Amino acid sequence: MGVLHKLLSASLVMLSAWSADVPAQAWPTRPISLVVPFAAGGPTDVVARTLAASMSKTLGQTVIVENKVGAGGTIAAAFVAKAAPDGYTLFIHHNGMATSTALYRKLPYDALADFEYIGQAVDVPMTLLARKDFPANNLTELIAYVRANQDKINLANAGLGAVSQLCGLMFERALGVKFTAIPFQGTAPAMQALLGGQVDLLCDQTTQTIPQIKAGSVKFYGVTTRNRIKALPEAPTLAEQGLKDFEVLVWHGIYAPRGTPRPVLASLNAALRTALKDPDVTRRMAELGAEVVPESKQSPEGLQTWLKSEIDKWGPVIKAAGAFAD
Ligand code: ASP
């Protein structure tokens, strides 16, 4: 009886030690999906795929990019908000996570309450472009041309909530003009339309535009950052050419559905931080003009504080511009 009792309690100890380890061992046992709210091949997608490849190495499971397009990124956000909080669905989004809260009168999710925060990743400048045969060769000519011909000009964007839409809106307001907006499901198809000469103007991240600018396949008028960028050192900023205070920087956050277990979030944050130091990631990001954010922003708290401040910053601007959708 005594021996049996000892054996029994020894196996109970082993069993409880094993169950304590289960959460760590049991996740991830299958591929993880990283939802991108815009079309494959575009700027957000490029950032996502670069991070996913590195995070897959750390997590020992493939992080698969899943493009869920539409409504300026809000369809993907709604999908992730309702996904199972089991660590197998993640979400990457940019400034649109904040601006959509003001742009849409009704959203089927709460940007602040329905997600867990993993961390911020990279900041990306934007560039202002036109189709190759557009009549204006520099910003001065562009401003004169669009002021005289605004009703004939169209501007491609990735829908209400996209940074291309926000950048276009800021350009229109700076000049006091209005273009015809042509929404796409991401700026990858918008860029194809620009290259094909079907649309006139596009404001888009360097993560997609640098190769086209370098190849000379588009007209390029400047970068949207306060200072010139390393990846395009010759390129002037829009601000230095007279569009004072014209500044758009695209930031990226990684989220999970609300309720995702804490240990899983901690592992995801560690994998993100490892990716942001991975030379394959930093090299690729630097070539495309993207900058890894400081460590303080790579934390869940850093992302949460930033998102809140962006909602507070853009809400009044968007309301004043009167750009809404239901
Ligand atoms: N650049 C896009 C935007 O305007 C999104 C994308 O296709 O990555 O938000």
List strands and helices in order, with pairings.
Elements: H1 2-26, E1 32-36, H2 43-59, E2 63-67, H3 74-81, E3 89-93, H4 96-103, E4 115-131, H5 139-149, E5 154-157, H6 163-175, E6 180-183, H7 187-195, E7 201-205, H8 206-215, E8 218-223, E9 249-257, H9 262-275, H10 279-287, E10 291-292, H11 300-321
Parallel strand pairs: 1-2, 1-3, 5-6, 5-7
Antiparallel strand pairs: 3-9, 4-7, 4-8, 4-9, 4-10
Helix pairs in contact: 2-8, 2-9, 2-10, 4-11
Aspartic acid (ASP) binds next to α2, α6, α7 and β7.
Description of the structure:
- The chain starts with a helix and ends in a 5-residue tail after the last helix.
- α2 (43-59) crosses α8 (206-215), α2 packs across α9 and α4 (96-103) runs parallel beside α11 (300-321).
- The protein is globular, with a radius of gyration of 23 Å.
- It contains eleven helices and ten strands.
- It is an alpha/beta fold.
- The structure holds aspartic acid.
